[in-house]
Structure formats: structure tokens, C-alpha cells
UniProtKB/TrEMBL annotation:
This is Cyclopropane-fatty-acyl-phospholipid synthase. The chain crosses the membrane at residues 6-37. InterPro entries: CFA/CMAS (IPR050723), CMAS (IPR003333), SAM-dependent_MTases_sf (IPR029063). It comes from Notodromas monacha. Pfam families: CMAS. One of its GO terms (biological process) is methylation.
């Protein structure tokens, strides 16, 4: 999600130089250490931000209710990170527009308008670092597991569907807009149809999460599944699930990095995992997929994608608080790094369904908060506002169609014509 053109700073050896542009007027203010800003400068920043937001249909004072004037400086200084952190700190709340509508509106600002307002030089430092170093190397691969997925199975099970599917549901044909269970079962059946599963086939589920897709495919399609995951909490849950459902002869879970996979499989599936692979590792991911897939086999990748190819995860808030070192590939990259190894048989974009999925997740999450289900010592008010911002922020990105959700089917030396369901 690209909001760094709306907010930014120019760092200069410990002294922050803020460039505020409004038409033909520009003011450069030196602030030692970034700890002080004069009321006059803050007033100017407020006017500039108010004008730019208004051009996106977002009204300060009506759509965004300011509780602390320091919010404007934080937005200018820290971009989307400041936007999210000031929400967490209750410096502002939504008014007549819901948060996802505000985000969708800001996302639609013309790139040139966003560039004129502020330039995100601080994030460019990370961009350079990201280009030079592998942020998702084997030694760093468990950072996201520890930060996000090991929050506790109880936390996620409270507001996800009964199958613990932490990925986009498929809402085609689902009449009830709140029936997340039906949408997720719909998605899993769609995956099975696209993979053309038959009883006795072997399937590898890369980044298998809590193992519910693996168990679903084994139970409903008679296949044998090997799931691989680096999250200790999720693998523990998955193994217990296998025992509960009596699937020990059909489903196995491995606590390991996907790069260490061995064996040969008829089918490969990965859902919501490619976002954690990283740009530098995309070629290796498809190398691994090619190595473990049998000739004639099919692979299905479901991934959130960026609207265009970028070299770094562009959102500071998501990077710091939700998914460290995450990277959203573009649809172009889903083809580029696979084309020398596979035939791309089918691509389907149903990103609007992720908007609906996120809306239901937020509704269920808020219900948990209202009922006092979460542990206040672990999930305090700041944590709750962080998660609300994350869920609605992402909803807005899908609503604006700057972020997408693709399912891509690949084949390996397959002589038959592939017909998508």
C-alpha cells in the first residue's frame, strides 16, 4: 500500500528538515532532534494536510476527528507509520466516514499529488537496505512467525472462521454476507478443483498455517498431505488437529523452512505464504516448487499482490507492527520467476473478496473486544486499536484496488490441456 507519498521527512545527520509545500508556497523548518515544532509550523502543516486530504474526499474535523494536534506533525514526520501510531495513541478517530473509506480515498490521490506533498526519504534508507540484504534469509525466516503467528492460537480462533483460515475467502455463491465459514469452505473447494485432486495423490502444503487446509483436502478428497511451516505454535495446533480427526495416516506436518523440503509430490499448494518469501527469494521458491513437483504435476499459489512491481514493502506500519519484512509481489513477478520452470495455466484475481473477508474479520474481532474475550494484559487498548487499524487499513487498500488477491495455477511438463473450473 503506497501512502508514503502522502507523508514523509528529509533526514539530515540528526537534524530533521521538514519540507512543507502548498501551491507556490514552501517553508523549510529546522527541528533539532524532531522533539519540537512551533504552533505556527504545525498550523501550516495542518492546512496543507487538510487541503490534500480534502482533494481525496476526506474532511479533517468531519471524517477524521482530531484529539491531539500533534497528529499532523506525526503524519508529516513518519508517514503511514505515524498515521497508524497516532490512531493507536487515540490522537484521532474516524467521524462520518469509516476508516476503510478514508484509506481508500487517500489511496486514490494521484501519484504526482502525493509526491508533491511529502517525500519519504527515511523509508528510502530501508529501501536501499532491502535491496542489498536478504530480509527473508533462512536465519531470519522465523521473525514473522515469532512476531505475528505465535500471538497465540486462542487469539486467532476467537475471530477467524471455524476452519482457522487466515486468508481470503471465496464469496461467489455465498448468500449471507457474514457467513465466513461458507466463504472459506468455498475457497478450499475451489483450490481442490483447480488442482484436479484425485484420491491417493500426494500434496505438499507450503506454509500450511494451522493445517486446516491440509486436513480438509485429506478428509474430503482422499489425498495424502505433507504440510511445512516454521511457526511452532501453528505446527503444534496442526498436529493436535490431525490426531483429533484421525488423519495420522494421511496428513503429516513438518516444522522447518520450506527451502529444506525433500521428496516428490503430485500437487503443491501455498496459500498466503508467498507474501513472506521476499523479492530476493522468489526465484528460489519456484526452484523448490519445481524440484519437489512431479512431472505433469500442478501447483497453486494464492497470494496478495501489489498493483505494481516494487523493490520493498512500501508500508512502514505493516512492516513494524504486523508483518516484519513482508513483501507483496506483483502479478508480473508471479509469472516472471516461474515461466522458465512452469506453464502458467490460469490466473484469477478476486481481491474484492478479500475486502469482504477483512470486513467480516473486523466485525468478529470487534465483537470479541465488546464481549471482553481477549486477555486485557496481552491485548490492551493500544493492541486492539493497532489490530483495528490493520484490518481496516487493508480493507481500504483492497477497496481502492491498489492491492489484489491472485490464485495462479502452474503445470510442470503437462501434456494435457488445462481447463480451469
Amino acid at each position: 500500500m503506497e501512502f508514503e507519498g502522502i507523508f514523509a521527512i528529509l533526514p539530515s545527520f540528526g537534524t530533521t528538515v521538514v519540507a512543507v509545500g502548498c501551491g507556490i508556497v514552501a517553508m523549510y523548518v529546522v527541528i533539532i532532534g524532531g522533539n519540537f515544532i512551533s504552533p505556527k509550523v504545525n498550523s501550516l502543516i495542518r492546512r496543507v494536510v487538510t487541503k490534500r486530504f480534502a482533494s481525496a474526499g476526506v474532511r479533517i474535523g468531519q471524517d477524521i476527528v482530531i484529539h491531539d494536534e500533534r497528529a499532523f506533525w506525526a503524519w508529516a514526520k513518519s508517514g503511514s507509520l505515524g498515521f497508524g501510531e497516532t490512531y493507536m495513541a487515540k490522537m484521532w478517530d474516524t467521524g462520518s466516514q469509516p476508516l476503510e473509506e478514508i484509506v481508500a480515498g487517500l489511496a486514490q490521490l494521484p501519484p504526482e499529488t502525493k509526491r508533491k506533498m511529502f517525500k519519504a526519504w527515511n523509508w528510502r534508507i530501508f529501501d536501499i537496505y532491502y535491496r542489498l540484504f536478504n530480509m527473508q534469509s533462512v536465519s531470519r525466516a522465523d521473525i514473522i512467525a515469532k512476531k505475528h503467528y505465535n500471538l497465540g492460537n486462542e487469539f486467532f480462533s476467537a475471530w477467524l472462521d471455524s476452519n482457522m483460515q487466515y486468508s481470503c475467502g471465496y464469496w461467489d455463491g455465498v448468500a449471507d454476507p457474514d457467513d465466513i465459514d461458507a466463504a472459506q469452505v468455498n475457497k478450499m473447494n475451489l483450490i481442490a478443483r483447480k488442482l484436479q485432486l484425485e484420491p491417493g495423490m500426494t500434496v505438499v502444503d507450503v506454509g500450511c498455517g494451522w493445517g486446516t487446509l491440509s486436513c480438509f483436502l485429506a478428509s474430503n478428497y482422499g489425498v495424502k498431505v505433507t504440510g511445512v511451516n516454521i511457526s511452532t505454535e501453528q505446527v503444534k495446533f496442526a498436529r493436535e488437529l490431525v490426531a483429533q480427526r484421525g488423519l495420522a495416516n494421511q496428513v503429516t506436518f513438518i516444522l522447518d523452512d520450506y527451502r529444506n523440503l525433500s521428496g516428490k509430490f503430485d500437487r503443491l499448494v501455498t496459500v498466503g505464504f508467498l507474501e513472506h518469501v521476499g523479492l530476493m527469494n522468489l526465484p528460489e521458491f519456484f526452484d523448490v516448487a519445481h524440484r519437489v513437483l512431479k512431472p505433469g504435476g500442478l501447483a497453486l499459489v494464492q497470494s496478495i499482490t501489489n498493483g505494481k512491481t516494487v523493490h520493498v514493502q512500501a508500508d512502514q506500519f505493516i512492516h513494524k507492527y504486523i508483518f516484519p519484512n513482508g513483501y507483496l509481489p506483483s502479478p508480473k513477478l508471479l509469472v516472471k520467476y516461474a515461466e522458465s520452470k512452469f506453464v502458467v495455466e490460469d490466473m484469477q484475481n478476486f481481491g474484492v473478496d478479500y475486502m469482504r473477508t477483512l470486513q467480516v474479520w473486523h466485525k468478529r474481532f470487534k465483537a470479541c473486544v465488546d464481549k471482553g474475550i481477549f486477555d486485557p494484559e496481552k491485548q490492551d487498548e493500544t493492541f486492539v486499536r493497532m489490530w483495528e487499524f490493520y484490518l481496516l487499513y487493508c480493507t481500504g487498500a483492497f477497496k481502492a484496488r491498489i492491492t489484489h488477491l491472485y490464485q495462479v495455477v502452474y503445470s510442470k511438463k503437462r501434456p494435457e490441456i488445462y481447463i480451469a473450473p
